[in-house]
Specification:
Layout (H helix, E strand, L loop, with lengths): L6 H9 L4 H8 L4 E2 H7 L5 H13 L3 E6 L5 E6 L1 H4 L2 H20 L11
Antiparallel strand pairs: 1-3, 2-3
Amino acid sequence: MKQYNLGIEATLEILGGKWKSLIICLLMGGTKRTSELQRSIQGISQKVLIAQLRELESDGLVSRHVYQQMPPKVEYSLTEYGITANMIVDVMCSWGRENIKLRQQQGEEIMLLEEK
């Protein structure tokens, strides 16, 4: 039996790491193919992306649809349960934007590309 001392431990087990929250954020915009996700996430390898997607699928946040065609086509989307993670991801995005503004005010050369 798994035990957690704090609820955040369960959250981080599912959403923690460098890529999962980014994947969820991108899928909030709709269904995506593996190649679309990889192009949108700078620095992620295909192997890592697929592993992260499989973990999110195993945790019930992402669904995977394979089309029986050649070449094979696979699409990923959020499940109803996955959509509930939007609240968490939105708060993380807001906090990140505020953190970037603070760091800019302190003289750090940093830019948020989504607001270009």
